[in-house]
Design brief:
flat; four-stranded antiparallel beta sheet; 141 residues; 4 strands; alpha+beta; 31% helix
Length: 141
């Protein structure tokens, strides 16, 4: 799959006290919103990947890379989309310029090969298509 799959994600729930979110972006800073469509029968798998594998694995990263998780959060869907998928929103707020948010390389740093490939397959098998990405700028208000 050539589509870059990006983090944020999965990107953070309040239950992850190790990576409590820092303050949001300031006026003029870039915010990145990624929508991950997830198969209805794979919601539990996707959430397990995000909250039991990916997010906790951030503790194995450098302090600089841990900022990716501290400045990100995940929004869970409340209902299915019209096509039956579930949209999980990953919000990087603010985006760290020059940082690599790609999930597979981060997994390699966290767990090494072949665990990274095994875990990445959990992620990709749960998704129902390409991500939708929005790059926005924080307003002053």
């Amino acid at each position: 799959m050539k589509t870059k799959l990006f983090l944020l994600a999965s990107f953070v729930l309040a239950s992850f006290t190790t990576f409590a979110q820092t303050p949001r972006s300031k006026s003029g800073e870039t915010v990145w919103v990624i929508v991950n469509p997830v198969k209805a029968n794979k919601k539990a798998q996707f959430e397990r990947f995000i909250h039991e594998i990916f997010w906790p694995g951030a503790s194995k990263l450098s302090k600089e890379e841990q900022k990716l998780f501290k400045q990100a959060r995940v929004l869970h869907p409340t209902k299915a989309e019209k096509n039956g998928t579930y949209a999980y929103f990953f919000i990087m707020d603010p985006v760290i310029k020059g940082a690599n948010y790609n999930i597979h390389p981060l997994l390699k740093k966290m767990y090494g090969e072949p665990k990274a490939t095994e875990y990445y397959k959990l992620y990709t098998d749960a998704t129902a298509g390409p991500q939708i990405q929005y790059i926005e700028t924080q307003s002053k208000d």
